Amino acid sequence: MSAAEAAPSRSRKPVEYEVTVDRVRMDTHDTATLFLDFGDRPPEYKAGQFLNIDPHQFPALGRLSAYLQEQKGRKEPQRSYSLASAPHERFVAITVKDEEFIPGLTRYPPLLSPFLVHGRLTGARLRVLGFMGPYVLPDDVDQRTDHIVHLVAGSGAVPNFAILKDALHRGLKPRHTFLFSNKTWGDVLYREELEALERQHPDRVRVVHTLTRETDESRYGPRVRKGRVHQALLEELIPDPGSCLVYACGPAITPWDRRKALETRTPATPRFIETTIGHLHALGIEDKRIKRETYG
Ligand SMILES: Cc1cc2nc3c(=O)[nH]c(=O)nc-3n(C[C@H](O)[C@H](O)[C@H](O)COP(=O)(O)OP(=O)(O)OC[C@H]3O[C@@H](n4cnc5c(N)ncnc54)[C@H](O)[C@@H]3O)c2cc1C
């Protein structure tokens, strides 16, 4: 599906809001959800969109930001965060993963995500720019398909979780298959919420997990599979490759990977998005039926 096909019917220019962090919920050891209070200025957005946060607004990050800018030779840009909330929910929520720094492997320490996750921001005021992005359901989704496949890994689940909640709340017709890849059971975001949605809508929602680093995934029940998302699993879950719509979000080759690949003259290693989209193509799913969001 092209961006134009799926674009919101009415696109508004992003607006800067000053919001209060109502609370911060630690979801896993490295990921937290920030619930943002927009006060009496109700935000207008579509499920699946994102907002931007400018790291320069935080005095605590001033020195690190100045140092990174000197090292990189460019101004640190705003960071984008998909909305974990659906428009009918009281708070706008973002779910942020604390980026890793692995000496010798990652080039620079991450700037903003550790601060958002561990900065004890409950009660803090933030400036955010919102709302953007065409990773949303088309207005006429009921006419286009009766099956939406969510194909997500790690924090890539964020916008799809919002889309799923919104579609169910609005009583849209398509059923949903939510295929969620993680390293371990402890890394799975929104585990209980997804289970609850499946229980409330047994004929509309099917959640399947794949775990790449769990030694005995069978103890978590039949909906939990071992290893990466592979073609046979997609074949099993997508009986309708000609009519489903796929929303895929997760790690993809980054601009830094591409630069390194050029420098070292070795191709960049495909990540979740490249690999799974290759499988979808092999199943005969056309590009116009695949919508993707990457965080690079
Ligand atoms: C549309 C969109 C939606 C997103 N939604 C989410 C979300 O819901 N949740 C979430 O957690 N994240 C999301 N992201 C990612 C998010 O915007 C940030 O990229 C992420 O939080 C990391 O930011 P940081 O400041 O912590 O790290 P950064 O400072 O950006 O660093 C991240 C990595 O990039 C490397 N790097 C940075 N600059 C360079 C350089 N010049 N050369 C080489 N390597 C470099 C660093 O070494 C580090 O490994 C989204 C991104 C997009 C584009």
Q: If you had to describe this structure to a student in words, what would you say it looks like?
A:
This protein has 296 residues and is α/β, with parallel strands linked by helices. The chain folds into 2 domains: 3-132, Elongation Factor Tu (Ef-tu), domain 3 (Beta Barrel), CATH 2.40.30; 141-294, 3-Layer(aba) Sandwich (Rossmann fold). The protein contains 9 helices and 12 strands. The chain has helices at residues 3-6, 62-72, 113-118, 141-144, 157-169, 191-200, 231-237, 255-264, 272-282, and strands at residues 15-28, 31-37, 50-53, 79-82, 92-97, 125-132, 147-153, 175-182, 205-211, 224-226, 245-250, 290-294. The strands form 2 sheets. The chain has a 6-stranded antiparallel sheet. It has a 6-stranded parallel sheet with strand order 10-9-8-7-11-12, with helices on both faces. Helix 5 links the parallel strand 7 (147-153) and strand 8. Bound molecules: flavin-adenine dinucleotide. Residues 50, 72, 79-82, 95-97, 99, 106-108, 110-113, 133, 155, 158, 256, 293, 295 line the site of flavin-adenine dinucleotide (FAD).
Features:
296 residues; alpha/beta; Elongation Factor Tu (Ef-tu), domain 3; Rossmann fold; 2 domains; six-stranded antiparallel sheet; six-stranded parallel sheet; binds flavin-adenine dinucleotide
Number of beta strands? 12
Q: Ligands bound here? A: flavin-adenine dinucleotide
Tell me which CATH architecture of the largest domain applies here: 3-Layer(aba) Sandwich
Rg (C-alpha, Å): 19 Å
Q: Could you name the CATH class of the largest domain?
A: Alpha Beta
Between the first and last Cα atoms, what is the distance in angstroms?
20 Å
